[in-house]
Write a structure and sequence with these properties.
Structural class: alpha+beta
Number of strands: 10
Number of helices: 6
Strand content: 15-25%
Organism: Pseudarcicella hirudinis
Number of domains: 2
Oligomer: single chain
InterPro entries: SprT-like_domain (IPR006640)
Protein name: SprT-like family protein
Largest sheet: 7 strands, antiparallel
């Protein structure tokens, strides 16, 4: 991918005032970067292969702020790998320090809206392996998603029916951060994240 192509991609997916910084990170570390179709299991990915070098991917369906967070999350993995190889935990204190350090240049109200800046600043003090593990951040980021007919599972009442990934469920009781839900067809029970986006029936 050419430099012009990278700049075009960053302008398309990132908040405007973060584009140059994110481009500079790519130029500095020289990794292969790809925007991928949506993946259920993850928002982004970093890997290193001897034959292909450093590679970072980010899902195409993320809003600009989620895209920015995911991108820098993965760059922090790259930085940590360069420093320590595989000797440290993937989301250990070294990665957490690099995540915060790498994010600081765009952790400002010139890039982020005030409500997101406040929550994200708190999250970055001790970031989890995924933003999905920090409910306040999930909820703020969802407000910046494109408007759809999907709503957070938390907004439904117990007993309400909803659809997620093509399956119909009945909402049950909350168990910590997940709801115990029943498949409407099979009556099997599943735990579903409280912050999952679903279509209410």
């Amino acid at each position: 991918m050419t430099q012009d192509k990278h700049l075009y991609i960053f302008k398309k997916y990132l908040p405007e005032n973060s584009v140059n910084y994110c481009y500079d990170l790519w130029a500095l570390h020289k990794f292969s970067f790809k925007v991928t179709p949506p993946r259920q299991s993850k928002f982004g990915d970093y890997c290193y292969r001897k034959d292909k070098g450093h590679q970072i991917t980010v899902n195409s369906n993320l809003n600009p702020y989620s895209f920015l967070i995911t991108y820098i999350h993965e760059v922090a993995h790259l930085v940590t790998y360069k420093q320590y190889g595989n000797k440290k935990d993937p989301h250990g204190k070294e990665w957490k320090q690099n995540f915060l350090k790498t994010f600081l240049p765009v952790l400002s109200n010139e890039v982020l809206p005030p409500d997101l800046l406040e929550v994200l600043t708190a999250y970055l003090q001790n970031p989890s392996a995924s933003t999905q593990g920090y409910t306040p951040l999930v909820r703020i980021l969802q407000t910046y998603d494109l408007q759809t007919d999907e709503v957070p599972l938390t907004s439904l009442k117990e007993g309400d029916q909803f659809i997620i990934r093509g399956q119909t469920f009945v909402k049950g009781l909350l168990r910590r951060t997940r709801y115990l839900c029943t498949d409407a067809k099979t009556s099997k029970r599943y735990v579903i994240s409280a912050t999952a986006l679903v279509k209410k029936l």
